[in-house]
Amino acid sequence: MTSPTITPQLDLDSEQLARAYERESATRQFESGKRLVGDLALVPGERVLDVGCGTGRLAEHIADIVGPSGSVLGIDPLVERIAIARGRSRAHLAFEVGDARDLGGLSDASFDAVLLNAVFHWLPDKAGPLASFIRVLRPGGRLGLTTWPPGQRTMLQQARLEVLAEPPFDRHVRPADGVLFRVDEDRMRALLGQAGFTDIRIELRPAEQTFADAEAAIRYSEASAFGNFLGHLPVELRARAREEIRRQLQAKVGDQPVVRREHRMVVFARKPEGA
Q1: Residue 225 resides in a domain
Q2: pLDDT for 174 beyond 80
Q3: Span 203-238, pLDDT tens digits
Q4: For position 274, what pLDDT does the model report?
Q5: Taking residues 20-46, what's their average pLDDT?
Q6: Are the C-beta atoms of residues 146 and 173 closer than 8 Å to each other?
Q7: pLDDT (tens digit per residue) in 109-153
Q8: Cβ neighbours, 10 Å, residue 78
Q9: 258-270 and 198-211 as β-strands: parallel, antiparallel, unpaired?
Q10: What domain range includes position 119?
Q11: DSSP of the chain, one letter per residue?
């Protein structure tokens, strides 16, 4: 039987989760995002759209690069995270509540670069957002994104699957990949080509993250998933499921840290000149 499609819920986020993400992302998503920005070779004066900007750390970094002659707009559908991001605002750095699936308020050819750091796998539909990204890019503009390809499962993800397969949690259906929508390299290349992008470059880069213990790994996943870590469960079951996952993961690692080893997909593409 085919698992139902369960999309990420945006109303599960909270101020507490947003502030936890602000702390956690400083040494995790932010660092990978800086490498992506470096690869995009942004220069002063460029206009950049940061899609899924979270609490704004990376957008602030980009604003330092493009300088006052450039501009950065960070958008995110999570109100609590944009509230934190707006504390970083300045003349050439702005933040708005916005969704990758609806960029209708942005003008055609208004950005030199569009960037998504650890966001693309949250989007159930890929074609619509990609069509919007190429529309808002100027001719010759660049797209850069990082995402997680399919076929990888961390120890935490495995522990969660095992716990959720047991009663009473198994009565609440959740696909094996949760609310992530991953694509492989071939599908990514096809999607970009169908949207009209050229000069497509895709790399798989090893990525490793270390957490002190199971509790730290779970806190990070909860903050990154903006409440979707166990959001499909009734409220009264979430704490129990969380504790079972923590115990099972801790049993797997013993006294050692939790090490998350995966490959990150890094993608670059360009809007054709004259398009």
Answers
A1: no
A2: no
A3: 999 999 999 999 999 999 999 999 999 999 999 999
A4: 84
A5: 95
A6: no
A7: 999 999 999 999 999 999 999 999 999 999 999 999 999 999 889
A8: 25
A9: antiparallel
A10: 15-151+179-208+262-270
A11: -PPPP-PPPSTT--HHHHHHHHHHGGGTHHHHHHHHHHHHT--TT-EEEEET-TTSHHHHHHHHHH-TTSEEEEEES-HHHHHHHGGG-BTTEEEEE-BTTB-TTSPTT-EEEEEEES-GGG-S--HHHHHHHHHHEEEEEEEEEEE--SS---HHHHHHHHHHTSTTGGGS---TTTT-----HHHHHHHHHHHT-EEEEEEEEEEEEEESSHHHHHHHHHHHTTT-SSTTS-HHHHHHHHHHHHHHHHHHHTTSPEEEEEEEEEEEEEPPTT-
Token pair of 56 as six digits: 């704004």
In a domain, 110, yes or no: yes
Amino acid at 13: D
Place of tokens 């949760």: 178
pLDDT of residue 176: 65
Identify whether 108 is part of a domain: yes
The number of folded domains in the chain is: 1
Q: Return the percentage of the chain with pLDDT > 90, whole number.
A: 92
Assign residue 47 the CATH number of its domain: 3.40.50.150
Please check the confidence at residue 2 and state whether its pLDDT lies above 50: no
Q: How far is CA 106 from CA 49, 130, 217, in A?
A: 10, 14, 37
Rounded to whole angstroms, the Cα distance separating 44 from 65 reads 6
Please give the model's pTM, rounded to 2 decimal places.
0.95
Q: How far is it, in rounded angstroms, from Cα 27 to Cα 260?
A: 14
Q: 118 is written with which tokens?
A: 């650890």
CA distance 88 to 146: 23
Tokens 């609590």 found at: 80
Question: Is 227 inside a domain boundary?
Answer: no
The token pair at 115 is 């960037």
What is the mean predicted confidence (pLDDT) over 171-199? 91
| Residue that the structure tokens 């707006």 belong to | 86
